[in-house]
Structure formats: structure tokens, C-alpha cells
Amino acid sequence: MSPAAEPTPLRRLSHIEHFSSTRHHIGIYRCVTVTCRYQANASSAAQAQLDTAKLYPALATVVAAQPMLRVGILGQDTNKAHFSHLKEVDLRNHVSFKTLACESAEKYEALVAEQQGWHHDQLWPDLETRPPWRLAVLQPRPDINQEIQSVDLVFAFHHSLMDGTSGRRFHELLLAALNDPSQPSCSSPDAPHLLSFPNAPKLPEAQEDVIPFTNSIPYVAKTLWTELGPDMLKPRKIVPWHGKAIDFSIPHKTRVRPVDIPHEVIGSLLKACREHSTTLTGLFHALTLVSYARNLATDEAKSFAASTPINLRPYFGPNADPELKDLLRCLITSFSHEYSAEAVAAIRRLEADLDALIWQNAKRIKTELVERLATLPKDDINGLLKYVGDWFDFWEKKKGKTRSESWEVSNIGVLPRPPPDATWAITRLLFTNGSMVAGPALGVNIASAEKGILTAGISWQDTVVPDELVDSLERDLKAYTQRLHETGKFGA
């Protein structure tokens, strides 16, 4: 290693960043992935070859502007890990190109999902000296891609660096750089892959330093009792369906199943959501609930629970540096929802009014989230992370326990479309969590491109959730949304 590449310590990881760094070290959560389909403008397709000559300068611009893309992690095997300043970043360690052998567009889509799962399963090497992120450029064989000039860019990153919202933002920044005709050259013309950063970056602050968490005594007491109190002294709790129990010995294989919903169908869904006072997030929770309830046996799944990640960026306190607010970073919390045995039984009744129940549950989720957003950052679980003295012991105690949630719905929103004359546009986003070994059994991850399609990326750990249940969920999400678009109702 050259002296320029020697890492030097920067700030200590925040509590939420330690949450992920320790998970990575023991192998139970490895990365977040946001894949975007970059489509060339028809009038400039011949000049829009995305090779290193075009990609490296654009990527260098993004890396230079975003400190979290040029740091490593020191001491990930400890509870006192620090980010490290890396004076050099070699893009060859982060960028790859791959042509997928496929005989049809459908096979190509399946291989992209398979590649996304593969990225979720990889541990980050040389964390101290290599920033933990990758950009893989995927494309089909030329004869499959002759009609639409497009490539898929898989952006995989360590969750300590940033969250899903930042993953989407990374693609926005890269797209802007690729479309910038005045794009500057790399810092070293003789070695365009090698980026130099001699001065230590000013990192975005730790989450707890910019989000003014306040926790009431009743909330702290209740939460600590729930986590630490002896089970024999607690009332018996109905355990929701959760797939297999938490088991670190199950092979870490992430499965990914994209569900693409056409733009015209999304228009119908948004209109219906407004009419029923809910959101797409609430609707996808409700559709997942109906699918689970109708495809799992009553004696196997009497009730469910789910969670929704919440973006904390609207809750910056006065201590937040205005210059750092828009940087890629991890600013996130989560909120849980419960579906009682009575609510699930109502869906299973043969005479059930499916439409009424879907909208009722979708509206309830929206109402719960609105109420929670109105009280944040008060009484939030992230405000209690400081009480976790040993994260490794925290995870060890999860072994063999039942999962708290049956699924998670995460929505990172819409990626804006560039001007019509831009060389590149993004038409599809596939956003997924990796295997949540100690978390929800399955993720439904929503993202869309403006004027493009919406994709719900289903992800789960192989064998933790039955394949048949995922097959049913995929079919139901497609069928219910298409039926609403065509008939105005979910039910047949």
C-alpha cells in the first residue's frame, strides 16, 4: 500500500451507522442496492456508449462531491468504529462491466434480479482502505438490446454510508454528470481511474447530532422493559407470522423478485389513493396484507406485523450544518404496524368486501404514519440506540428469537426525469434490501422514475420465506393493480 493510501481516522460512526457496521461484520446484513436503467436518447444513441471513457469522469465528479463515497471504516469489529480518510480512490476497484447471456428480454430481466441478489450477498473487502460501494454496468447481448439502447447500473453500498434515499440521489447526481456537456476530465489524465483526495473530507454529522431526539420517561421505561424485562413477568403476546425464526446459520442467499407496474397503471393507483385518503406506501402494505392472509393457512398465520422506514431529513435540528444537509448519508428510522387476528380473519371471509378492506387498511397505515410524523423526533427508537453498549451482544441475543415483523414496505420515491434533449434518462429503478437476517422476513421496496414505471422490488433470504408465498405476492401485486386500472376495483 502506498503512503497516500494509508487511512487516517475521521469521526466515530453514529449509533445507526454502528447498527449496520456490526451487522456487516457478523455477516447478517451486507448492503443496500439501487439499480437504475439508463436509456439513451434515440437521437444520440450512437454516441451514448457507456464505457470507462464516459463513465469515469462523471463518476469522479460525484465521488469528489460526496465524502461518504471516499471513506473506509476502521474497527468494524468493535463498538467504536471510525470512518477513515482515504487519500486515493481507484475506480477500477468499484466499477465493473458485464454482458448478460440471455436469449430474450424476459430472461435479461431475470438475470438483472439475480445479479442484484448476488451483490447483496457479498461482504466488503478491505474496509479500512477501500470505500464500501460498487457500480456494476449490466447490459444484454447486442442482438437483444438493438431496439432500446439501455444499460442497468447496479449501485450497491454499505448501509453505514447511506440509506435508500441517498442511493436514489446517487443516481440523480450521476445522471446529471453524464448529461453535462462541460463534464470535466478526471483528476489524473494519465490514470483516469485514480482519484486523489489529499485533504480530509468534512463528513455529514452523526444522526444523533443533527436530529434532536427527545424521549419521555414513560417511553424509555416501556421500551427498555419490552427489550430487557424477563419474559415470565410479561403478558403473553400473540406472535405474528414471521417466516423462519432468526438463525445466523442459514446460508446468506438473497432472492430478488421485481414487480414492474406500468406508468398508466400508476396513474390510476395514485388517483384512487387520493380519493381514499391514502398513499402508495399504505396501499402496498394493504395489498401485501391481503396476499399474505389469503395465501397462508389460518392455523399458520393468525396475525401479522409490518414496518415502514421513515426518512429523517425533514427533522434537522438547529445544530445541523446547512452545507452538509444534502450530502449522501444515513438518516432513517422505522415505524411498526400491527394487523390483529380479527383484521386478518375479516380478509379471509368468503363474503369479504375486498375493496373496502384494502382501502380501510391502506388508509389506516397512512393515518398511523401521519400521526407518527407529527410527533417525530420525540419518543423514537433511534433516540434509545445510545443505550446499546455492546452491539455484538445485542445481535447475539437475537439468535433463535422470532422476528418482530412479517414484512417491510420501503418507498424511496420518484427519480426526476432530465430535459427531453438529455443524452441519458432513467426509466426504471429496482431498489432492494439484502437478506434481513435479524429483521423482517421480506421486503417490498418501492421506487419509480418520473414518466416511467414503478417497480416493487421483493427481497428475502432464501428458505426463510416459502417461494410459493413470494410467487403469490408477485401475482397478486400485478393482478390487483392492473384490475384497479382496468375496472376501478381490486376484486374480480
Automatic annotation (TrEMBL):
Domain of life: Eukaryota
InterPro entries (UniProt xref): Alcohol_O-acetyltransferase, Atf2/Sli1-like, CAT-like_dom_sf
Pfam family, one: AATase
Gene3D superfamilies recorded: Chloramphenicol acetyltransferase-like domain (3.30.559.10)
PANTHER family referenced in this protein's UniProt entry, alphabetically: ALCOHOL O-ACETYLTRANSFERASE 1-RELATED (PTHR28037)
Descriptive protein name: Alcohol acetyltransferase
Species of provenance: Purpureocillium lilacinum (Paecilomyces lilacinus)
